[in-house]
Specification:
Blueprint: E1 9-18, E2 22-30, E3 36-44, H1 46-49, H2 52-65, E4 76-82, E5 85-91, E6 95-97, H3 98-107, H4 114-132, E7 154-157, E8 162-164, E9 181-183, H5 190-193, H6 200-215, H7 228-237, H8 251-260, H9 272-284, H10 292-302, E10 335-337, H11 350-357
Length: 362
């Protein structure tokens, strides 16, 4: 078999983010004859790089989603190894996370437009529908479940295109699971919180929680004050504070949202493509509705500094600096919960638990 062996190097430009399993940097991919391309590189955190279980999960992530090619999913280009550490090269997204986008609206005290919230949810639903329907070479379903659909893992490009990223804890049914719960509690399905078998309908629930978050301009469907085990119990019991939604929320949209957030997976949408269709019908049934151009124009008007030139490393652009928010309004970062939190164990507060178990995204 013929092979092509080339020469590629990556010049690190700046740090982008750190998550529950790894860090992401912006890099310049350099080839021959001055070829350059901006990419993102994801590596394992140092504390996990020597852990075989996490290294295995990291490699499985890359293999699982390597062939997911969809405009609403951040694509993986390459899995590689350098100085004994694994990394993979990702599509670089020039834009803002949905979390930062909503936080910016909090800062300027402006409600997030309902039609744009539905548009973003519809686009992510299309990306999920694509992933959920993937099969292997033999035609057998891969049963991909993202497991961590949340505002941190949704990017909006400067061109107005929503993209789902970070399949860090995505898995197929045939992959082995450990005995922990992974994800973000405000967006976690009841079955995921209860450590039951999950499928694509868990992602539908999480996307519903994200839609709720957008419609309420930053309020999560469940309250986050108190001890972590109490918040976990809310997730298990599917506690939803519907009063956090605006009183003028469209009634037809509420029907869709209630289906997405139903406690029983059998009562939710049974196909992600059907959810995407209903969301699209809601915003386009009158013959017109938002597009990526609409969203890009809104972003340009609302946060113009996002489109200004970025000298140096790009850190001069501060339009997305965090506003001060109460924990009641702030989505929890990725958490891995030990067994005692399913058995009435230690009595620790949310802040204490997060400081030890959570890597805060910038």
């Amino acid at each position: 078999m013929k092979k092509i062996i080339g020469s590629v190097e990556y010049e690190i430009i700046e740090n982008i983010a750190e998550g529950g399993m790894g860090s992401v940097v912006k890099a310049l991919k350099k080839g021959v004859e001055g070829f350059e391309k901006v990419v993102a590189i994801k590596t394992l955190l140092d504390c996990y790089s020597s852990d075989k279980k996490f290294v295995t999960k990291f490699i499985e992530e890359a293999k699982l989603v390597a062939n997911l090619v969809h405009e609403n999913i951040v694509q993986i280009y390459q899995l590689d190894k350098f100085n004994g550490d694994y990394y993979f090269v990702l599509e670089y997204v020039d834009g803002v996370s949905l979390y930062d986008f909503i936080e910016f609206h909090k800062k300027i005290r402006q409600c997030f437009p309902e039609n744009l919230a539905v548009f973003i949810a519809a686009r992510i639903a299309r990306g999920l529908a694509y992933a959920h329907s993937r099969c292997d070479a033999t035609g057998s379903p891969l049963n991909i479940v993202h497991c961590d659909v949340c505002p941190h893992n949704i990017m909006i490009t400067t061109e107005g295109l929503p993209k789902l990223t970070d399949f860090g804890i995505a898995r197929a049914v045939n992959m082995g699971d450990d005995d922990s719960v992974s994800g973000k509690l405000p967006f976690m399905s009841p079955e995921q919180a209860n450590r039951q078998n999950i499928d694509f309908r868990s992602d539908i629930y999480s996307l519903g929680a994200v839609l709720f978050y957008m419609l309420s301009s930053g309020y999560t469907a469940r309250r986050l004050e108190g001890q972590l085990k109490d918040i976990l119990q809310q997730a298990k019991d599917n506690c939803i504070d519907w009063t956090r939604l605006p009183k003028d929320t469209n009634k037809d949209l509420l029907v869709i949202l209630r289906l997405m957030l139903d406690t029983d997976p059998d009562e939710r949408y049974q196909k992600t493509s059907e959810l995407a269709r209903d969301l699209e019908y809601h915003i386009y049934k009158d013959g017109y509705g938002p597009t990526i151009v609409t969203l890009a124009n809104y972003m340009r008007e609302t946060m113009p500094s996002l489109y200004e030139p970025r000298p140096g490393t790009g850190k001069d652009r501060d339009a997305l600096s965090k506003s001060s928010v109460d924990i009641d309004n702030q989505p929890e970062k990725t958490i891995v919960l030990p067994d005692e939190y399913f058995q009435g164990g230690k009595n620790e507060t949310t802040t204490e638990m997060c400081s030890r178990k959570t890597v805060v995204l910038p």
